[in-house]
From TrEMBL:
Source taxonomy: Bacteria, Pseudomonadati, Pseudomonadota, Alphaproteobacteria, Acetobacterales
Annotated protein name in UniProt: Lipoprotein
A Pfam family reported for this protein in Swiss-Prot or TrEMBL: Gcw_chp
Organism: Caldovatus sediminis
Region forming the signal peptide: 1-20
Keyword Signal included in the entry's annotation: yes
Highest taxon in the source lineage: Bacteria
UniProt keywords, alphabetically: Signal
Amino acid sequence: MPGRRLLPATLAFAAPFLAAAPGAAQIRLDGAGLTLSATPTLATDYVFRGISQTRGRPAIQGTVELAHDGGLYLGAFASNVAFAGNDARQEVDVVGGYRFEALGIAWDVGGILYTYPGYNRQPGQERLEFFEAALRASRAFGPVKVLGAFHWSPEFSARSGNGFYLEGGLDVSLPFEFTASGRVAYQWIERNPRWGAPDYLWYSVGLSRPIPGGFTLSLNWYDTNLSRADCFGGQKLCAGRVVFGVSRPF
């Protein structure tokens, strides 16, 4: 379907906001108060907001972040993609923002620029790149962490106007180092015909665990309330799917 972006995380609440995972390998630049972290990931699919970005194919991904002790950070996320009807083959997102704590809540205020290097837009095709402002918050209650996020784009992908995104979720620490997670979210788009699908709800449930060698394994189920007929002209990208991933911080 030429011109329609089929949406840019394998890790439901992590990318492209790049907070380092607990226990992640990091390089400290003490004189400057900076920390550098990076995490490559292999996954059986790249799913963003419940929709496959690789048409069900494997993804090689990476995140890198430079964070200051004062709360400012700058990072990037990269992945292969495979959209029907155009030649976009990679996504590179640039993120930046400020993290702080207030009222017992961890806040993250920032922005994300989604780009597609090498994409050669042909006549009749739409622009894929777009920007979102984002607000995230989390608070732990014993073994349970409650998370929320709100994103806004003044010009969503495919020049589809305002895009609003609301997400909530839980992470629960379990015995034997397992973590269970759940997410539910809704995406609103001002000009749905330009984007290619109606406003929609998506959700995920998953389980992750660190293993020897510094690796982390994850298994997630993603689904949306979009029918195949509503999914970008009848594609299978919005159907329920299982995604397995393995990552290792460096």
